[in-house]
Amino acid sequence: MIIALWIVTVLLALVFLAAGVTKSATPREKLLPKMAYMEDLSDGQARAVGILEFLGALGLVLPAATGILPWLTPVAAFALAVTMGAAIALHVKRKEPVVPAVVLGVLALVVGIGWVVLG
Major place of localization (predicted)? Predict the structure, then answer.
């Protein structure tokens, strides 16, 4: 079971790592054509979301992999679930599809619970 948890954790981390790097390293204006919801965020907010996603991705893998403060892995997962909750609210407000954010949020919750139970 721990192997399955590691697989989901790493895949989730890769998704958030890619999203975080993109949002934090790309100017908001260049993201607008593909991420229309960026209209509702300031430059600083967009960058902050990217940094949070990047740090969350690192937090999903590094603590458990190194054994240094492994309790941070479920904390990172739950923080990413909260982030996806905010994303869902933003997409609902804009009347946009919420399925990707719901899937990522649920996976983050599953990973967080998994690390609490199995970790």
Answer: membrane
Domain ranges (residues) in the chain: 2-118
- Rounded CA-CA distance 29/107 in Å is 30
Q: How far is CA 17 from CA 13, 64, 94, in A?
A: 6, 17, 25
Say how many C-beta atoms besides its own lie within 10 A of residue 98's C-beta. Answer: 17
Query: Given this model, what pLDDT does residue 12 score?
Result: 98
- CA proximity to 108, closest of 36, 32, 16: 16
User: Is residue 110 within 8 Å of 69, Cβ to Cβ?
Assistant: no
Residue in the block written with tokens 């982030």: 83
Would you give the DSSP letter of residue 32? T
Q: What is the b/e burial string over 6-31, where b = at least 16 CB atoms within 10 angstroms of the residue's CB? A: bebbbebbebbbebbebbbebebeeb
d(CA 110, CA 81): 9
